[in-house]
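Name: Odorant receptor
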Amino acid sequence: MDHHSENHKTSDENNKERFISLQLKTLRYLCIWPLNSDNQIYYLLHKLSAIIRITIMILVSIGQFIQLFFMPNLGLLSSVIDVATLTTSAAFKWVFTIIHVKEFDKLNRVIFDKFLEVPLVGSKNSNMSMKSLLKYKDLLCTGYCVSGTLIMTLWAFTPLLNSFIKHDIILDKHNNASDQFLSPYHDLKMPVNSWLPFSPTWSPLYQIVFLIEYYTFIESAFVYGFQDCYFFTMLYCVSCQMDILCETMKNITINLSVERERRSGNFENLESSRRRVEIKELDGNEGTNEYTTVDKIQYDEVELHNILKQCIEHHTILLKFLRDYEKLSQTMIIVDFLHAIISLSFALLEITVSQNIIEYTKMLLFLVICIWHQFLNNHFGELIIQKQMSIADAAYDLPWVERSPQFKTSMKIMIMRSQQPVILNGLKMYFLCYKTFMEFTKALISYFMVLRTLQEGK
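Structure predicted for Odorant receptor:
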């Protein structure tokens, strides 16, 4: 573990966690990412904090599943199962990411070390740089996490808000002698409908349990929000790299034409000794500095093919990154999908049986943020697919007809790779794209209608 921490620290110092700095800071809060410290005490406290926090979330989730057996009807069942799947999936994703932190570290190092800041050749588009393309990512990530946290906070405090709406303060409700020993908290609900081996109706037991369950809600929001922002930012960085790759290919021949005009038939002003060697090899005579038009065409062929090979190497790095990410994220994607389809189906049912405006608003906001989360999963999956296809288009748009056989072969390889895009998926059962999201929405409505029919039948 110390070796891993040292390697990670070296990577941070050399590359400054570029592109995903904020996202790694949020993962450190969740104790997923190692601290930038060699202090063994800090390291142990960091790990102990993760163990305690995850244990609390798991225990609350287990209590919810036990509570399912005590629900007399489908309406009350829906008030448990939608939250139970949320906290359980959040705990799973939390543990999964901690276990596979070394694999994610390898992906981060690719971003730190291999991703380009600007295109390989000059571009007239001043916005075609990682700094410009990622300009608003931190703001969007912050807004996404804050909105989820606010909704979870509203949900947690709904029992208290309901008590004010009903105007039945418990202290005024029990005035007769038979109720004099009732707790003022016995009619108040908890943020989570979880089974407990005791009745938390006395102070400060009620407040302690309330805070623990509220904490579980907030941590679930943090796990989903922080990990989503980390994963989405990684995928968006890859899509930006593909934009930069397309821009490089678009400007290859333009830059060569400019260089030919600048040199005006004389290669004495070449800035690179490597290029001089290549030209002399083409000429076959090291004793002269005069070159023919044929030599210039041959030089451009060599230069063009060299740039294309660099593009292919860049493309290979991106494809390998996506394949590694796909293998690593498959389990989390399918867990995410199962949580969404179960939780949202029951959340829709709970909206139909809401008893007041607070309950209705709570469930509606929960529904919106969960659907938005699932849409973003599919959006970035679709974005990666489209960017891969755009590379094939950019390669085909190159002036390949009059190029050398070596150039044509390299270009064909690049096009063939791009026409079979890497598609992010959950164990080959759920693919992240717009088409799948539409199917998910239809399935969600169908399941809700079935549940509503069952509820009305009872």
